[in-house]
Each structure stands twice: as structure tokens, then as C-alpha cells.
Amino acid sequence: MESITKNRQSPQVLRAMVERAYGPDRTPEGEGWIGELGHGWFNVAYRVRLRDGYEAVLKIAPPPGVEVMTYERGAMATELAALDLIRKHTAVPVPRVDFADRGHDLCDADWFCMPFVDGDNLSVAGPGLPAADLAAFKERVGAANREINCVRGTAFGPLAGPGDSSWRRVFTGMVEEVLADGERRHVDLGWDYDTVREAVAEHAASLDEVREPRLVEWDLWDGNVLVRDGRIASVIDHERAFYGDPLIEVGFAGTQLAAFGDPAPFMRGYGHPPLTAGETVRRRLYCLHLALVMVIETVYRGHTDPGPYDWARERLAEAMALLGRAPRQSADQPSGVTR
After folding, report:
1. Three-state SS string across 8-50, please?
2. What is the pLDDT of residues 131-160, one digit of tens each?
3. Domains of the chain by start residue, with CATH
4. Which of 188, 210, 247, 282 could form a cystine bridge with 167, CB 3.0-4.6 A?
């Protein structure tokens, strides 16, 4: 996936980074030892083959000169913290961290190395699988997600803090940050920004039902799941984790928005019963937040293909309708992004 946030480095710099992580005796020579991995929208990741045959992944955060969304600041530190929590407190397979560097002397951003996991990306392999096999994988994802959500925090909010005892304050603050990001770059939502704020405020009391902070991935979709031999080989890309309401996980999005797919296998694996009335309202708020992020991030990624923006705009309209808001403009009006 192409994005202006991908911080690509020269072969000379990459070799120096590998040498620091693994030592000069294991640093590869010649050509063909490194290649960019194509999946992912945010960080750049390289597959590295060391001199002794060990295969690793080198992941680099965006360059400091590229503006990212507010919640994405410090994302690599969040990923490292999430990996540590998941490895310590669950049996969910995630890569270990071989080496991490936040010194910014070899390159201008944080970076770390981890083992390369040999597996198929579920978003790529899934469409070619028999329906029963794909459903079985989604059940396993649901079970893994529940295990991650069993990790308890002391407060809601970012893994590094500051935390808050109120999920309502944290979540409405998350929405406000996203809206401020959109306003700063003049992103056309198809809605007045204050109308979106009003929709959230009108339903915010439902958030008070959430009393216990849990570790949430938020981005555990098929593209962040590697599978092999009928099992989950690894869950990857943890930079969006925080302490919040497990119902905000993307696996539940299809309960309200059909475009996110049938949620039944995920919910079976998770062991979650049908949503209550209060849970339904919260999940609709979470769909709205997700759609806002997906619309606004297209500007921050520098996308030139309007497809992701148009798709996300449709989801935003659906989420607003679920919260009782009629569309501002008709579907046949031209779409666009103001940058």
C-alpha cells in the first residue's frame, strides 16, 4: 500500500540498522538480502535475510516531517508496549522484539526488528478459502481478540497514559481529536462537523456502562492476521492499541454496518451474545468513529486514488443514519477531498 508516511531508507542506512540490531557478524553482504513488504498503510517494513539465514522484519516509523493524525503520534512506542503486554499476559501469537532503537541517529525515526513470520495474510488468502475454512479462521480471530481484551488496565486511554477513569471522556475525546484533524486539513465529510459532534453527544450516556479498562487492539482486521496450517501464526501491527471498551474492536463492526462483513463467526469465537440495546448504541458510536478515521486519514496518507475516501464516506453516512441523522447531500453529488 502506498502512503506518504512510509519512511523508506537507502540500502546503506538499512545495512547500518541491521548491523546495529544483529551485529556485524550477521550483517548480510552483496545484493538481494532485503525487500520491502507490501502490506500496511502507515509504517514501512522490510524483510531482511541475515548472513546466517535468519529472516527478520525491520519496521520504521514515519519521518518527522510528515504530518500524521493526532492519535498516530508515538504509534511505534504504542506497538512495542502492546507487544510486551500481549506476550506477557496472553498466549496469542505475536512476534517478539529482537531490537528497538529510538535514538534517531541512523535514521530520523523510531525503528525496531522482529522475526519474520512465515504465514499467509488472511485478507489475501481468505477470499480463496472455502467458506467453512474462512469462518473457522474468523472464529479463531474472535477467540484471540477476547484473550487480548482480558488484559486489564488501571485507566482508560493510551497505553503510556495519561489515563482517565471515565470511558465517556476518553472516547468523546478520541472523536474530538479526529474531528480536529479533519478540520485542520479541511476534509469534506459530507456533514457539518458540529452535526457530527451533536450526534455523539446525544448518545454519549451509553458510554457510561463501560467501567473496566481493557486492552483493545482496535485494528485487528484480516490484514493484520497471518495464518498457517489451519491456525493463526501471528497477529501483527499493534500500534493502535489502547485501554478501552472491547466492543470497539473492528470484529464487531459488522453488527451495525454490513460492509464490514458477517460478524457471526468472530462473535462465536469471541463468545459474545447478541448485543444489548446499550451495546448497540455504543457500537454505532464506534462505527462513526471508525468511519471518521477512515475518511480523514486518506488526506494524511496522501492518497491519490479516491476509492478509499468514497468507500469510507459511504460508511460515515450509514453510521450517521444509525444515530438518527439524515444525509446533508445526495449520493449522486460528486465526492472529493479538500487537502
Report:
1. CCCHHHHHHHHHHHHCCCCCCCCCCCEEECCCCCCCEEEEEEC
2. 999 999 999 999 999 999 999 999 999 999
3. 11-116 (3.30.200.20), 121-322 (3.90.1200.10)
4. 210
The structure's pTM equals: 0.92
Instruction: Tell me the per-residue pLDDT of 237-273, one tens digit each, with 9 for 90 and over.
Output: 999 999 999 999 999 999 999 999 999 999 999 999 9
CB 27, CB 51: distance < 8 Å: yes
> Who's near 53: CB < 8 A, 6+ residues apart?
none
Alpha-carbon distance of 60 to 73, in angstroms, equals 14
- Please give the Cα distance from 236 to 233 (Å, whole number): 10
3-state secondary structure 199-246: HHHHHHHHHHHCCCCEEECCCCCHHHEEEECCEEEEECCCCCCEEECH
How does DSSP classify residue 130? -
- Region at 160 (left for phi over 0; alpha for psi -120 to 50; beta for the rest): alpha
* Alpha-carbon span 137 to 84, nearest angstrom: 24
CA 247 to CA 201: how far, in whole Å? 19
DSSP string, 286-308: HHHHHHHHHHHHHHHTT---SHH
